[in-house]
Model the fold of this input.
Amino acid sequence: MLRRGFQVAGRLSQHRVLPGVPQVLPRLILTSTFGSSTDSLVSRFCLEKTGLKDYALPNASWCPDMLSLYHELQEKTKTDGWVKLPSFKSNRDHIQGLKLPLGLAVPSDERDWRIFTRCIQVEGQGYEYVIFFHPSKKKSICLFQPGPYLEGAPGFAHGGSLAAMMDETFSKTAYLAGQGLLTVSLSIRFKHLIPVGSLAVLNVDVEKIEDQKVYMSCIAQSRDQQTVYAKCSGVFLQLQLENESPQ
Amino acid sequence: MLRRGFQVAGRLSQHRVLPGVPQVLPRLILTSTFGSSTDSLVSRFCLEKTGLKDYALPNASWCPDMLSLYHELQEKTKTDGWVKLPSFKSNRDHIQGLKLPLGLAVPSDERDWRIFTRCIQVEGQGYEYVIFFHPSKKKSICLFQPGPYLEGAPGFAHGGSLAAMMDETFSKTAYLAGQGLLTVSLSIRFKHLIPVGSLAVLNVDVEKIEDQKVYMSCIAQSRDQQTVYAKCSGKEVLSPSPRLCPATITHRTNGRKNAEDAVPSRDPAS
Done:
């Protein structure tokens, strides 16, 4: 099976150690470990005093359900081992000092780059969300409130907007739980429409880490769990970010 | 299997004619047909002179590949039966005079509603795309160019942005090919990253229409087809009523007073 993006570095035959993976990788695997522990990944991810704006904080557009569940989970960050993840406007801000491996890294430029789920900067109009992660349970909870710019059927969130929210929650979970980096697959079964402006709670579990892949499941439901909006499974490929070359 | 959103009107047991579909529907089904032909759906969808801005037209941000493939396909709209679909800022503009069935319709208001794939209004920064549809072959081609606001891994489009583009292409295809209305499932296998600013060509086929569901497949690749970005299959559910309901008719269902309504914000009891 072809790993995502690896053909950038050239095509490979099936009988290599890892089919589809560029020649450089076996050496990386022998000398490296997927050894960065979840705790060290989380510490690096959740540095304080970055000077960057954290968008995963309450604002006036958050509905009462979202605010109250946020506060419940914030309490749990003090007592139960949960961690609130920061969320910057650009994914590049999350990986300062690191870059994509395998020649995938592209030169930086001055354009206004935004991580897709922070593409709309107007409060309440696009994605409002916050992700809480539990390092030892390897679980995440994402509170997601879609705004009117995410519309599909009138009054309801576009199926694709939920797909992207699930992909992003999987992405951060896979990274912290096991250095999962790129989406291999997503499989979503939709059950009910999410009304724009209401809260959807996404519960993500890491099912297993095997064969260089992180396997996760997600259920998106209403706060009272009476309505299931969708279920999803996702698989991410483990890859280590490289250090940026010193200038 | 539960149809998306249909529990709004109440839970049903398995032995009804159509599990999960409100009680009022069997009568509708006897009297209605899924009869709106693709041609009539397309004509209604592609009305000219709407006075609305069509975003599925070239602009300065389109890369050369996108422009040239667009012009090739435009030629085919004259000779080979392809149709270029208009794309308005809001999905509501596409269904003027119609509304969702089964009590799913919500009152309109003056907020700035945008269809998700047109959420970013700045040229070239978000989604640039155009969909061509072939009514008799029941195929679509979507030309998609992701901008820097759609980033995931640095320099590349977020997987979720492609998922949404596929869902939207499926959505318009299912609607025109068979009145498909709501997504039931999406299953995507990613192969390669799409560089921001480059063209991805999404080819969608309707595989079959069966059991009130439209089944489609999609392959997203580079223009020269040398790089496959992703493959996807999607199912949209057909509306159990023959069409979106005319907006002038009040649609009543038995389920409105049901405490199990799945849309609490519209339930006066909540």
